[in-house]
Amino acid sequence: MESTLKCIGVLTSGGDAPGMNAAVRSVVRTAIYNGIRVIGIRRGYNGLINGDIFEMNLRSVSDIIHCGGTVLYTARCDEFKTDAGLTKARNTCLEAGIDGVVVIGGDGSFRGARDLTKYGIPCIALPGTIDNDIACSEYTIGYDTAVNTAMQMIDKLRDTTQSHDRCTVVEVMGRHAGHIALKTAVACGASGVIVPEKEFVLDKLIEKMKRSQRTGKQHFIVIVAEGHGKVDELAREIERLTHIETRATVLGHVQRGGSPTVRDRVVASEMGHYAVELLLKGSSNRVVAMQGGKIVDFDIDEALAMTKTLDMELYKISSQISI
Ligand code: ADP
Ligand code: F6P
To answer: Are 246 and 238 within 8 A, CB to CB?
Structure first.
């Protein structure tokens, strides 16, 4: 049966992530390739509520595949959680002739996509967040670039940490999840990693550092996931208990920027293409995800009910090879 889809909208929502532009490009080009018009929606759900939308063409997405951030801008929008906000958004879609929307963001954005679908506008969500904390997908757009950025920054910190025989405590992003922290800890050879998924015992870390000192280790990197926080306090405690001079660094939003890696550009291109194919098939309320390296899709409600655990095997490896 031929698709009745004539026009789709695309938006980015929540925290930006490198690779969002590659996803937008893929959505726009796949739609136009299939004879579908595309409307760009600015600043996430705000654009739908305020009618801040514009017609996109093939050239609207030229020269963006290598750029970080999002050319559609992004935002968080509390009004979208209300009936009034959703009604305005639906009316914008109806007036503009938008038959379906591709939403690129994290799980908050997925809830919005589910709600808009319930208001009659079919939505497909793509996992775009540096945190890699989407349960139904082993990968989220932006994660690889973020961990590579964190790794490069921590390598620089290692130079100065080593020169001064110090300990550096580094906070990385990840809101409520330790994926960025664990991956960078392994990549940077950190002596310790503190993640929200695993109880942290200060005495154990201190003991381990002292054991390493006895075998000749003179400098230390400890990586802390944002959810744990309190890096200044932790640095003071480490210094007090080990007598090793200790500094704290918060990497912050630098991890969200920069040109996306190959992995992020390719996954974003695949997922964007898949999202439009879902809409063409008449699917709605789906999340595009990666499982076993393949692109698949899930019902949004089912996806939101899933939970993601930290890679405990990698955690074990990290603690065994950082002695
Ligand atoms: P992310 O999408 O990166 O997880 P947030 O959790 O901040 O980022 O969510 C982004 C946005 O999703 C929110 O600011 C809001 O506009 C939108 N949203 C819409 N409906 C909901 C909802 N029911 N619950 C949570 N967020 C929602
Ligand atoms: O979800 C991505 C993320 O960068 C988290 O790692 C972090 O907790 C949060 O966004 C920061 O958000 P904001 O842009 O509001 O500072």
So the answer is: yes
